[in-house]
Every structure is written in C-alpha cells, then in structure tokens.
Amino acid sequence: MIRMRWLVTGLCVAGAATSLWSLNWFAGKLYSSAEAGGLAYAPDDAPARIDMAQVQRDWPASLGAPGEASRVIAWRHQMQGKSPMPSAGSAAGAVAPVMDLGTLLATANLDTGRAKMQLCVSCHDLTPGGPNRIGPNLWDVVGRGVGTHAGFAYSPAMKGHGGIWGYRDLFEFLASPARNVPGTKMSFAGLRRPEDRAALIRYLATLGDGAPPLPPPTQSGEGTP
C-alpha cells in the first residue's frame, strides 16, 4: 500500500513537472525572452485578427480557438527581424542637438546650482579662509590649480594631475570624478545631467573672485560640451 502511494505521488509530480515544462516551452516559442518588448508594436502587415497586446494579457485563455496558437506562432516567426515602427511625430534617426559648454553655462540656473551644492557641503567648506574637511575648501576653486589648496592631503593622483580647475575641467571631472582622475579620494559618483553640472559650476564661480570669464556660446548653439 505504501509503495502504491509513493508511486501515485511520483506520477503526479512527474505529470506536473511535464506540464510546467510544456507551458514554458510553448511560452518560449511565442515570446522569446531574448527579444523582450519586441511585440509592443503593430506593423501594417500584421494579420488584423491578432491583437498581440490582448494575447499577452489573456494568454493562454485567448489561444483556445481552433488553430489560434499555431497562427500566432507563425505570425511571431514572420515578424522576427523587423524593426519597430517609429513613434508618431518623430523623424527616424533624428538626434537631439547637444548644447556647447558656453551655452550651458550662460543658461545655467543659479538656484539649481545652489541646490546641487548641498551634495557637496558635507565634505567641503565654502567660506573664505574656511577649513578643509574630508575634501578641500572650495572657496575660489574655479581657476585654482588642481591639487594645490594649502593644508589638504591630496591623493597622489590629484597631485599629479596638473592644470587648473577651469570650466571644462570641472565639467568633465564632475561627470565622474573617479573616471576622470583615477585614484582620487573623492567618493562622489558624479552628476550625469550636463545641465546640473553647468549649474553647479556656475554657482561655484560665484564663490570668490578668481573665476575666469565664462566661455562664449558657439554661434550654432550645438556641439559637444
């Protein structure tokens, strides 16, 4: 009797596993995980009866009609390799222009820069003659020599970097300090948006009297910052 129970239990488990495997295989045939999102559009030559969004919502109940599953799979294979339709009102392949650094700085919002500065004050003092903290004092930093503020223990990487903290140098550095100066002790991840970096630099330029004039915008207003 015990053996019979174990046999029945084993057959049930095997049957359930086989059913799950079959469903997973069929789902893989219908919706390949390697092409996630590939069905989120309706090409003009798609068969009118197939609403793929509805199929995805109702599957597998929507495949109950005779021959429906085979027809959807055939359509799926037919659509493989076709590009999604461009969104309405947008030109295919159009690339939005990127403002040059001069334009970014000229249009930067000081209030935004002041707000972004709050990310820095836990490590940097901003007052004239103020102390160094985890990072060096940032008063008069724009136009100052890199790694030269008195009394701060810079990393060898920063000491050996050379140059001054000009607008472009700060713009590139603040995008990713660790990538721009490998070996720096600065743990700040950086500001991804060019507009945020420009706003922060514009605010830094107001701290002190040593900042050079802003670079002029280009006539076209385009280019790489």
From TrEMBL:
Top-rank taxon, per record: Bacteria
InterPro entries: Cyt_c-like_dom (IPR009056), Cyt_c-like_dom_sf (IPR036909), Cyt_c_1A/1B (IPR002327)
SUPFAM superfamilies: Cytochrome c
Keywords, in A-Z order: Electron transport, Heme, Iron, Metal-binding, Transport
GO terms, molecular function: electron transfer activity; heme binding; metal ion binding
Domain Cytochrome c stretches: 108-208
Residues passing through the membrane, by range: none
Protein name (Swiss-Prot/TrEMBL): Cytochrome c
